[in-house]
């Protein structure tokens, strides 16, 4: 999925914003969940993007860890960019290794898409609005107003992560998928 998003996302206008066919997504999710072979290259890239966001939303406790939710939310309230980056790196160190590996690939994809935002209309802000709710959610439900404020803060964080991913994860993030 990530490889396809890395290849096609940068040249696809509105990637992550437009939803794939609900029926196709449901059928493919059932196939994937059953372990069947699925050739996503034959599907719309919007279906792949929708399936990927669904996958992220189904990670128990979220990829950024709901247990660290308050710490993630407070990162953007800190001083300068250097302090924010250091705080983010400390939080990443507290995540399970599998989460960190997946995050590196996710932000490698987002970085590639953002680099061609003139073409795809998906700058870091737009990507964050679309993907942030799939990366972190609070451990307990709350009022719509509190959830709205939370979503804004997490979107701001994901925008910052996207814009600074090379400094946070290392320059090699741009070549995780090799030369495609």
TrEMBL record:
One of its GO terms (biological process) is signal transduction. The keyword Methyltransferase does not apply. The keyword Phosphoprotein applies. Gene3D superfamilies: Rho GTPase activation protein. Keywords: GTPase activation, Phosphoprotein. GO terms for molecular function: GTPase activator activity. It comes from the Eukaryota. Residues 1-169 form the Rho-GAP domain. This is Rho GTPase-activating protein 20.
């Amino acid at each position: 999925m990530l490889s396809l998003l890395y290849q096609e996302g940068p040249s696809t206008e509105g990637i992550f914003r437009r939803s794939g066919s609900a029926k196709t997504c449901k059928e493919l999710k059932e196939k994937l969940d059953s372990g069947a072979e699925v050739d996503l290259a034959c599907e719309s890239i919007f279906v792949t993007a929708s399936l990927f966001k669904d996958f992220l939303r189904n990670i128990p406790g979220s990829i950024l860890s709901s247990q660290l939710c308050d710490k993630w939310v407070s990162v953007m309230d800190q001083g300068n960019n250097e302090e924010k980056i250091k705080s983010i790196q400390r939080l990443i160190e507290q995540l399970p290794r599998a989460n960190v590996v997946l995050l590196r690939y996710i932000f490698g994809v987002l970085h590639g898409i953002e680099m061609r935002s003139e073409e795809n209309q998906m700058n870091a802000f737009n990507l964050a609005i679309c993907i942030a709710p799939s990366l972190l959610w609070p451990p307990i439900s709350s009022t719509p107003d509190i959830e709205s404020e939370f979503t804004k803060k997490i979107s701001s964080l994901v925008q910052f992560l996207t814009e600074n991913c090379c400094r946070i994860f290392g320059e090699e993030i741009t070549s995780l998928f090799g030369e495609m």
